[in-house]
Every structure is written in structure tokens, then in C-alpha cells.
């Protein structure tokens, strides 16, 4: 004998709605990238480098040198503030042109500089639910030849940080 099935006209269930609210991420410039005073090469082009990691200087190639008296070479430094314990991305412009000289920028990679894409990552100190901060640097290199323009030169560049 067959029995009839009862059809259901409605059904109800419940779900949870959630949200995680972060503090805004901010970036503050602490210092500018400076190569100080350099003496360009008299022959083969020289690459002048200021390290993103520690501001140290080096040259390669020709006979150009860093010299005293025109300011101390230093990396640009920045402080990031935001939600504690969170990872963030750093993106800097790839280059800046100063008086016809192209400076290639390198954002500090927490562990190693990343020069091919100029992106890097870091982690804000502290824990979720609290404020945190960290600092990082941007360095760069410039190739100067015996015909590179002389004189004081500067240009600006952008650095952006975003939560991952």
C-alpha cells in the first residue's frame, strides 16, 4: 500500500556574519635617500650603490668614488603603523630621474632586497587587536659615466604600503 509524502513549503536555517576590522595602515618618511657627494668616473662607467638594508655604500665598474663633504650617504627610511601582527606589501617607484641621472630604486626586502619588481613584504610588530609598527629602507644605484651631468640634483619617488 502506498502512502502519501508530505511536501515542505518552507525551510529555515541560520548563518553567522562576521567582520575583522583593522586599524588603517600608515606610512611616514623618516629620512631621504642620499648619495652624498660623488666624483664621477674619468673612464669606464661606475655604479654607485646605497644599500636598502643598511645604507652602506659601494662602487663597481670604473674609478668613481664617494667622497666626504657633500652629506653622508644614507638610505631612505620609512615607518609603517597599523594592525599588529599583519603582513603588508611595499611598492616603490622603479626609478627617479635627477638632473638627467637615472637612480634605480630598491625597496628593502625583509631578508633580502628585491630589485626586479621593486616590491617587498614586511610584518607589523605586535598582535591582532593592538597597534604595531616597523621600519624599512629604500636604497638604490646610479650609473655615472665621464659625461654624466654634474651639479646638485634631486627628484622625488613614491612608496606605497598595503595590507596583504
Molecular structure report:
It contains no helices and twelve strands. With about 160 residues, the protein is mainly beta. The protein has one domain. The strands form three sheets. Strands 1, 3, 4, 6, 8, 9 and 11 form a seven-stranded antiparallel sheet that branches.
> Helices and strands, in N-to-C order?
EEEEEEEEEEEE
Residues in β-strands, percent: 35-45%
Task: Name the helicity range.
Answer: under 10%
Would you tell me the structural class of the helices and strands? mainly beta
Return the average pLDDT rounded to an integer: 88
Secondary structure: number of strands: 12
Radius of gyration: 26 Å
Described by the principal axes of the CA atoms, the overall outline is: elongated
Work out the helix count. 0
SSE order and pairing:
Blueprint: E1 26-31, E2 37-39, E3 46-50, E4 57-61, E5 65-67, E6 76-83, E7 87-92, E8 95-98, E9 101-107, E10 119-123, E11 131-144, E12 159-163
Antiparallel strand pairs: 1-6, 2-5, 3-4, 3-11, 6-11, 7-10, 7-12, 8-9, 9-11
List keywords for this structure.
164 residues, mainly beta, seven-stranded antiparallel β-sheet, three-stranded antiparallel β-sheet, elongated
Could you give a short description of this structure?
The protein has 164 residues and is an all-beta fold. The protein has strands at 26-31, 37-39, 46-50, 57-61, 65-67, 76-83, 87-92, 95-98, 101-107, 119-123, 131-144, 159-163. The protein has no helices and twelve strands.
